[in-house]
Amino acid sequence: MSEKLALITGASSGIGAETARQLAAKGHRCLLLARDRQRLETVAEEIRKTGGRADVYPVDLADDRAVQRAADALLEEAGVPDLVINNAGAGRWRPFLETSTEEAVKMIAVPYFASVYLTRALLPAMVDRGSGRLAFVASPGAYFAWPNASTYIAARHAVKGFAEALRTELKPQGIGVSLIVLGTVESAYWEHNPGSRENLPETDERLLPTLSLAEAAEAIVEGVEAGKPVIVKPALYKALFLLNAIAPGLVASQIRKASKKAWKRA
Fold it and tell me: In this protein, which residues make up the domain named Ketoreductase (predicted)?
């Protein structure tokens, strides 16, 4: 992948920030989007100190008008992105009856509506140019469900459906679409969403290891560089997704058992 203009949402910390660092290390100019200007500037300064290029665009991605204003500004100042990574996400893993409707709305607003707003704002310019790639970061919840994370999982299913529909629609326009599915990642997410880890189904670390931020970002960068339509890390999840398509009842029963073990352990 030659030098490109890469836009990353949720870039103020975690997977987004590390993905930006890795892309910048490969020589790409990065556009960093998130709400917190100060944290964005910190990431951008880290990139600049290592010789990379980064610009920040603070924006509330759940606000469609704010997203349009940010998109207009970056298109004028930086140009049309070659790569758009929709990474921003939110939401606690909680039982449905303990999840308020307000919290459910926030979980669908980011990541799903955030990616819709940004894609709608940038896509016309990408189509006019006839090239580019959209990437959407999701989780295994986009393919199967586990107890006590219903609204979180629904939002990830929405992201998956959006990515797959866009891939079909945009292929004739020269725009590629990647869906990125990452397993458990050791990040600040668990601190920012207390109670979520307790609802994480128990898995064998030898088969489905927890990813570091660097491993998660590397999977994203390598996958989009290769133009892969679907990027899954750890790879064993591919087999689980296939098994779920063939025998959903079996997978569901095993996930319930793994969830019960996690509750007892917590």
Answer: 4-188
